[in-house]
Amino acid sequence: MTLHGKVVFMTNADDNSGETLIKRLADEGAHFILNSVSDGKDIQESLAYCQSQGVKTTVVNVDLSKSSEVKTMLERVAPQIGTVDVFIHNTNVVIPTSVETCDEETFLKVMDRNTKSAFICTKEVGKQMAEKESGRIIYISSIHAEKPTGSSFVYSVSRGALKLLARESALYLGRYGVNVNAIELGPIDGDDEKFTSHISKLYDDYQYKVPSTRLGNDDDLADLVLYLASDHARYINGADIRLDGGFLLHYMDHKMKKPTVRSESHPS
Hints:
Layout: E1 7-10, H1 18-27, E2 31-35, H2 44-52, E3 57-60, H3 67-81, E4 86-89, H4 104-132, E5 135-142, H5 153-173, E6 178-185, H6 191-194, H7 218-229, E7 240-243
Parallel strand pairs: 1-2, 1-4, 2-3, 4-5, 5-6, 6-7
C-alpha cells in the first residue's frame, strides 16, 4: 500500500468529495486527522469504513484560520495518531458576490476559509514535515485561479492567492523534502448552478465545453490526490495541475460536440 502508516490531515471531511478521498486513501493504508464542522455526524459512513479497514481516525472541529487552534490541535493528537505526513486542503467556500457589491465581512469570510486556513495549516504542518524531512501538501483549488467566475470575484481571488501560496511554500519547504502542489479542479456536476452568472456564459452548456463531453468527478480527483500524496510524485513540486478535461481550452461554442438532434419524419 502506497500510504501505509502515513497520517493524512484533511481540512474539510464533510465536503462532497470527502467520502471518496477518505475511502481511496484508506485503501492505501493511510490514517486520518479529519476536520469536520459536523463533529463527524455527516461522515459516519466514512468513519465506519475506516474502522473496517483498521485505519486510525481522529475527528476534530477547529477554526483552521486561527493559528492557536491549529497548533494546539496538532500537538494534542500527535501522541494518539502521529505527526502529519500528508496535508490536504479541500476547503471550498463559494459565496456569490461582485466587486461592486461585496461587503468587507463577506470578503474576509471567504479569504479566511479558502486561503488563510491554508496558510495557517501549511505553517504548522510544515514544521512537522520539515523535522522529518518528508511530506506532501496538496491544495485542492480551482480553475478559477486562472479564469474569472463572473459570479463570485472573491472566490477567484482566494483561489489565485492559493496558487502563489503553493509556489512560495514549495520553494521554502522543498529544501526539507516537502512537496507542495495545487490541483486546479475544473467543472463537475452542479457547477453551472454554483457559478450562475448574469455577465458570463462560461457555464452555459458547460459539459460540452469539455472536449470529451465528460465532466470530472470525485474519483478523478481522488486518483490525482493519491498520486501526489505518494512517493511516485517525488519530483513534482510547486506545480499547478489543471484537472478540467480541457475545459479552459474551449473558445468556439459553435464547435462544441453536442448531441445531434434528429427531426422526426412524418409520412405525407
